[in-house]
Amino acid sequence: MNLDAVDEAVTSSVFFARLQELTHKLADPLLNWGFRYSTWWYLFGLKCCAIEMMSFFAARFDAERLGTFFSSTPRRADLMFVTGPVTKKMAPRLKLLYEQMPCPKYVIAIGECAICGGPWFESYSVIQGVDKIVPVDMYVPGCPPRPEQFIESLQKLHKDIKEKGLRR
Amino acid sequence: MILNMGPQHPSTHGVLRLKLTIDADTITRVVPYMGYIHRGLEKLAENRRYEQFTPHPDRLDYISAMSWNGLYCQTIEKALDLHLPERVEYIRVICFELQRIANHLMFFAAYTLDLGQTTMFIYPFQEREWILDLFEQISGQRLTYNYFRIGGVSRDVPRDWPEKVSRFLDHMEKRMKVYHNMVEENEIFLARTKGIGVMKREEALRLGMLGPPLRASGACRDVRRDEPYSIYERLDFDIPILEEGDSFARYEIRMLEIYESIKIVRQALTQLPDEKIPDGHDLIKQPVKVPECEVYCRNELPKGEGAFYLISTGERPEGRLATEGGRRPYRLKIKSPAFVNLWFLDPLTRGHHIADIIPINSSLDLIFGEVDR
Amino acid sequence: MMEEFQKTLQEKFKIAESIVVRNELRVKLVREELLPLCKFLSENSFDHLSCITGIDFIEYIQVVYHLFSYEKKFWVVLKVDLQKDNPHVPTVCPVWPVADWLERETYDLMGIVFDGHPDLRRILLPESWKGYPLRKDYVDENEIQWGEVL
Prior knowledge:
- By secondary structure, chain B is α+β, with helices and mostly antiparallel strands.
- Chain B has helices spanning 41-45, 65-80, 86-114, 119-139, 161-184, 187-193, 201-207, 212-216, 223-226, 247-271, 280-284, 337-342, 345-349, 357-363, 368-372; strands spanning 2-5, 17-23, 26-33, 148-149, 152-153, 293-301, 304-312, 331-335.
- Chain B has one domain (2-372): Cytochrome-c3 Hydrogenase, chain B (Orthogonal Bundle), CATH 1.10.645.10.
- Chain B contains 15 helices and eight strands.
- In chain B, strand 6 (293-301) and strand 7 form a beta hairpin.
- Chain C is built from three helices and seven strands; from the N terminus they run H-E-E-H-E-E-E-E-H-E.
- Chain C has helices at 2-12, 34-43, 99-110, and strands spanning 15-21, 24-29, 48-57, 60-68, 75-83, 88-90, 113-115.
- The radius of gyration of chain C is 17 Å and the shape is elongated.
- The B-C interface holds B 4, 6, 34-35, 38, 40, 42-43, 205-208, 221, 226-227, 296, 298, 305, 307, 309, 311, 320-321, 330-331, 333, 335, 339-340, 342-343, 372-373 and C 24, 47-51, 53, 55-59, 64, 66, 70, 73, 75, 77, 96-98, 100-102, 105, 109, 122-126, 133-134, 150.
């Protein structure tokens, strides 16, 4: 059986396109709800903001009540917090880790260092902002931002996913 | 076989890459690679005025930010030969020792999390949040305080702050018993740390170890005792020393140091003088101009002996060695204890299993903002 | 005590100049005298090498070693001037093993070459970095090396 021919027949047929639309319309709200209440973040701490990320996970600002938990491997993560400056040495590794995360994935840039280079924007080895390497969905200002701002950013992300749908 | 523990790893306390050469689960060699957070702080210091550079040392070791901030201000004050009011010195020592307690609590949390015990990660964070609340009341920030200024502090402590600190210390002493129980009755923790990564006294001194790991191996070296700075001479405290030199000793010594820090803060609170100290706004009125000199100033940071080496070429007209009329350093060298202690990962892990790297790495208490600068 | 030690050093070795400031004995010497002096110091209780610094004084480069003695309780600061086009100096690793990484960092950022070092390569910057950042005439032309992942 020629699979290429079958594949082409399915993707160019109007019936199957309509069927796909219908499935998305029915299943999307369910998928959205399931995704946004279990966005697991990737345990990747670069600098000071990573300590606030650990405080965010500890008992006072409990992250697990929002449905999140940390994942040590990028293969199971939905969300990456970039918590520090990205140097020229670290940039290829960061891009590799970002590409290893499966879609749909989101990136939140935490702190001034990730947004624009921070206090080190004139340095010879710091890249001015992580959005020059990976696409960023949300910027959280502060040096470092409080754990309450982590909670706020997650809630805004959840609202965003609810309104605009998952990125495919 | 060569195995890579890449820059991202849940247990390496930051961005550290290790290249392990193993022989079927036994390690023959470990080569650390660092520099993933190198921001060029020393070059940045040459382009900033002394007052403008004050927030930057906080970001070196962000878990003990008060200590580095205080060390920088101390270096500049030594170069300017400034005499600080007594109250400022006492406030600084109280902040240093509270920061030491917070740092050791964070060490305890991260150490036990690396060994898999999440409960013992959550418990110390409660006390650490209390200390961060105390620091927030005086400086406004939770992590990188920038509280000290050259010549003093940015603002005086609130009137009820000393009483809140002593209430915290009473609570902390009771909590230490809880932490001891959590560890002593935990067979897995003891089996994974006792006898792992042993370094004896002579080897540690010859190879140049610093800080609590050196004191856990039996050598009594502490800058607060050998070259006292600030008001440490007036305070009565002991330097704990242990003999075993293994990962468990490196953990236990930090718990003993918490008791000593509580003692120091209690004494400092009773001796705290009541006088009016200049505000940060008053200190900024005169620009800081350092004359031609070189100063080497070291402190006992929670992780070991840290130092700043400042070279200033003074006020000279525009030309070769000019530095904006003496308002910028010509060269500021930062010496961090974690950079020296990271070298010990190789000798300590020879002959152990791969799973033993984690307790050894965590017991050295490294922080990569300080290693890479 | 520092003055007596200063006299002992001046008798035994060829020292350009030496001065006592607070509790530091600052000694300036030529690079050929460095290793013999270091061996003498380490036998006389100066076993703590605290810091190795490289400074760019535009016409020449200087290496500074900070040594402390826990018995005698004072510092000895050694300074060696090197020419900018030939910044070679013998390594002190055989005397104080802690100098291993301190010298690698000075090579990485300032470009001083330590002869006899067991493993002199870059430590903080990537291996393919061009130039020495802490020099006063440094201009940055380094890009991200996308292929350098491992």
